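Hello forum,

I keep getting stuck at the same step: I have a sequence, I want structure tokens, and every attempt I make locally crashes halfway through. Rather than fight my setup again tonight, could one of you with a working pipeline run this one for me? It's a single chain of 395 residues.
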Amino acid sequence: MYVRTTVDPPYLRLLQLLRDEGPISRAELADRLELTRPRLLAEVERLVAAEYVAEAGMAASRGGRRSTLVELHPRLHFAAVDLGASSIDVEVTNGRLETVAAYTEAADIRSGPKAILHRVNELLAKARVDGVYDRLDAIGVGVPGPVSFRDGVPVSPPIMPGWDRFPVRELMTREHGCPTVVDNDVNIMAIGERHGGVAHSVDDFLFIKIGTGIGCGIHLNGEVYRGTDGCAGDIGHIQVDPQGPMCSCGNIGCLEALFSGVGLARDALAAARSGASPSLAERLTAGAPLTARDVADGAAEGDVTCIQLIREGGSRIGSVLAALVSFANPSMIVIGGGLAQLGHILLAEIRSAVYRRSLPLATGNLPVVLSELGPRAGVTGAAVLASHVAFEQAS
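Reply #2:
Ran it on my machine without issues. Output:
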């Protein structure tokens, strides 16, 4: 499991160093891992025999005998799968998490696990036929709903009919003959942002995904906090208006029901039909369904109603985040997901609500920023998770 309970063993730290930094000399590895030279050489020899690492030439001289460089074995490959409400993103990476094949296509998560995972397997099979990899060493999968991380299954996901308790991990492991790890989408996005995004050097932060649903990845002490059963951070179903609309979870007035991709499209349609928004009314006459992109474009054109819709949503999200800031005191809040495209009007309103409603001590040094990785946060995090579970096999 990707949960730190003790300090990682030397072999795991060694593999992570090579993943993140590339070839390193044996001498430098011994220094950085604080291992004796004989212990380091024994670890490296074992990992070479198991084809996790390989020699990579000679290092620059440090004043004495030149040390040999060590790198991750070039045969290592991971698959990263980010399933959204309306999309599939699949990447195959090498051991350093560099993308060697990528596939993105529209898909409806409501078509069920068999159809969606079958398509994922087809994409991975295509990469194999194309010579991208000989075999996969691990697979990371993110899904847009609550996940039992321990069991590798979605649990009662509101927007994923047919997925409840479906054995995603078991099926993918059996299909590809390698370990698989399954997590919810916002957790893998947080992991991705920590690995290669704006939160790269931050151990304590919140990643807020605003899309078809709303979730929060909680990153504490350098690790994702999932809670006892894996559902920590499900902030989209916090009630913010007892008189609000029905949510997909069956409750009334959830944050997600009031402001998400679905909620914003609903309010945009109402504004277009009533004539409150000339910009949205014009787009509606074109015949295509209204989306968050239409609201963002309308706001950019100065449409007052579009701007107000974004501000109201940002204020609601900011009020919920203010409570989380008071509770967890993070070092950063990162905003991602599809509705992050609403840009700085949304970001400014979230910031305003957080700073206004939280104690000064908690917000004096609290940046609230947009994701650097954008739509790639999920596949990046899934690849990181895959690498971790693969490296654990080296024990």
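Residues 10-72 form a domain with the Arc Repressor Mutant, subunit A fold (CATH 1.10.10.10). If your local run keeps crashing, start a new thread with the error log.
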